[in-house]
Amino acid sequence: MARMFRMLGFWTLAIALMSFAGDMYEMALLFFIQTAAFFLLGYLKFTERTYVFMFWGYMIIAFLGFTYWTVFEMGLPA
């Protein structure tokens, strides 16, 4: 499972670099932070159960943040 977190770090790094190249600096910063967190967690050698709990926590926070942003911050389509 630790290798999965490092793999998630690799893909978030790829997304961050593409966002940076596309002049989407806020999105790039968000994904650079996620990359650092995933690589750090991937090398801490937690138990399998801990990694699963951390991933579920990440998914809940990510979905709640996405839902909040799309409902309350983006506004209604014209």
Secondary-structure element pattern, one letter each: HHH
The overall strand count is 0
Give the C-alpha Rg.
15 Å
Molecular shape: flat
- Major beta sheet summary: none
Strand content: under 5%
Transmembrane segments: 31-46, 53-72
Organism: Cohnella ginsengisoli
Protein name: DUF2626 domain-containing protein
Pfam families: DUF2626
Blueprint of the fold:
Layout: H1 2-21, H2 25-42, H3 48-73
Helix pairs in contact: 1-2
Q: How is this structure best described in words?
A:
It is flat and about 50 Å long. With about 80 residues, it is mostly helical. It starts with a helix and ends in a 5-residue tail after the last helix. The longest helix is centred in the C-terminal third of the chain and has 26 residues, at about 50-75. The protein has helices spanning about 1-20, 25-40, 50-75. Helix 1 packs antiparallel against helix 2. It has 3 helices and no strands. InterPro entries: DUF2626. Keywords: Membrane, Transmembrane, Transmembrane helix. It holds the Pfam family DUF2626. This is DUF2626 domain-containing protein. It comes from Cohnella ginsengisoli.
State the gist of this model.
This protein is an all-alpha fold.
Key phrases:
78 residues, mainly alpha, 3 helices, 0% strand, flat, transmembrane helix, transmembrane, DUF2626 domain-containing protein, membrane, DUF2626
